[in-house]
Design a protein that fits this description.
With 359 residues, the protein is an alpha/beta fold. It folds into two domains: 1-18 and 247-359, no CATH class; 31-236, Spore Coat Polysaccharide Biosynthesis Protein SpsA, Chain A (Alpha-Beta Complex). It is built from 15 helices and eight strands. It has helices at 2-16, 18-25, 54-65, 84-89, 108-118, 137-142, 168-182, 211-220, 238-241, 244-258, 261-265, 269-280, 284-298, 304-321, 332-358, and strands at 40-47, 70-77, 97-101, 123-127, 132-133, 150-157, 193-197, 224-234. Strands 3-2-1-4-7-6-8-5 form an eight-stranded mixed sheet, with helices on both faces. Helix 4 links the parallel strand 2 (70-77) and strand 3 (97-101).
Length: 359
């Protein structure tokens, strides 16, 4: 039992030591002075059942694009089943707007590949529908692409959500990404808003789950990826977005990428270390935490203190997965719930799914 507790603590400490590693490698990134102007841009807007968002979002994007001498807004609607169609029709005759409405749902990767095949310009921005964006974000996201060594630029996810709640987890992730960016190896752009040079785009397989991470890893094989902190993406409350389905999707995506030898082997040694340290090491933490929890439960007969700790942790776990029913203010609860969902996803994918497939 002591070994389990010690191993859990060691892995957690290793995970949080990642920024120290980034400090030593960030100076290795090539620094080039940005030159010239970017006057032509293709902005790809990915739409699917976005009735509450798309009208306001498209108008915002058109205002942002208006300062460019040449631009196009390519809207790919992935066979929405709400009233998205009627809203898109109001933009049908708008200059520089191209609307593609699919006849059946084919997924984000298909939409991305289709949009890039239609794009006329060398600088492409991908944009999701739900999030709010900061002013001048289109100009700001393109600025680092003026450097010849940069192939993609990611916007920065705000740690303050639409309800003005502050997320420590998002703040931590932003810190990690900012340090990765300084080394030129941002391991995964923020999917809601990022820009690339068309020459660095690799068609994304339609079965890929984490399209933004897949594309990022392919781009890193040839050029740098940066984070632009002046491009703020504001999303919904973290606790409302983070569900079991989301955790299962991420885990499935990470495991899927491991099977793609071409993606992994194409990375440099430094990039592989960063990928596995940041993305994969933390997947072992929920399993070790659960093993520690079971070990603590087996120790309750050894003293009252073990029983008290076991009860406290159990109560926190119950509260964390019942967060929509209980009005708590403890941000630590989000971290507990996230680890519970990841553990459940690991059990479901690795143990239960193979059993179900045998039946």
């Amino acid at each position: 039992m002591t070994i389990i507790f010690g191993l859990t603590l060691l892995i957690i400490l290793m995970y949080f030591a990642y920024p120290a590693y980034l400090y030593f490698v960030r100076s290795q990134a090539a620094q080039e002075k940005a030159t010239g102007n970017i006057d032509r841009v293709s902005l790809v807007f990915l739409s699917y059942n976005g009735k509450p968002y798309i009208g306001e979002k498209i108008n915002f994007l058109l205002r942002e694009l208006a300062s460019f001498p040449e631009y196009e807004l390519i809207i790919i609607d992935d066979f929405s089943e709400d009233a998205t169609h009627s809203i898109l029709e109001t933009f049908r005759n708008t200059k520089q707007v191209k609307i593609i409405q699919k006849t059946f749902h084919q997924g984000i990767a298909h939409s991305m590949n289709l949009a890039v095949s239609l794009a006329r310009f060398d600088y492409i921005i991908f944009c999701d529908q739900r999030q709010k964006l900061s002013p001048n974000i289109v100009r700001n996201i393109l600025e680092p692409l003026k450097s010849g060594s940069v192939g993609a630029v990611s916007g920065c996810l705000s740690c303050i959500d639409k309800d003005q709640k502050n997320s420590i987890l998002r703040k931590h992730e932003n810190f990690i990404k900012s340090q990765e960016s300084k080394s030129g190896c941002l391991i995964g752009v923020y999917g809601p808003f990022y820009a690339i040079k068309k020459q660095h785009y690799t068609p994304v397989p339609e079965n890929v789950i984490l399209d933004d991470l897949y594309l990022s890893l392919k781009i890193l094989q040839k050029s740098q990826i940066k984070l632009e902190t002046n491009c703020t993406i504001t999303d919904e409350d973290f606790s409302a977005l983070y569900t079991f389905q989301r955790a299962r999707r991420y885990l499935s995506g990470f495991l899927q990428l491991l099977k793609d030898k071409e993606v992994i082997t194409g990375l440099s040694a430094k990039q592989k270390i960063m990928l596995f340290w940041h993305k994969y090491l933390r997947l072992s933490i929920p399993v070790l935490l659960f093993a520690s929890y079971i070990s603590l439960g087996l120790m309750i007969a050894d003293g009252l203190i073990f029983f008290i700790f076991f009860v406290i942790i159990t109560v926190l776990m119950v509260i964390s997965v019942s967060s929509r029913l209980i009005n708590h203010k403890f941000r630590f609860i989000n971290l507990i719930r996230m680890n519970i969902y990841y553990f459940m996803a690991i059990i479901d994918i690795i143990l239960l799914t193979p059993i179900k497939n045998l039946r």
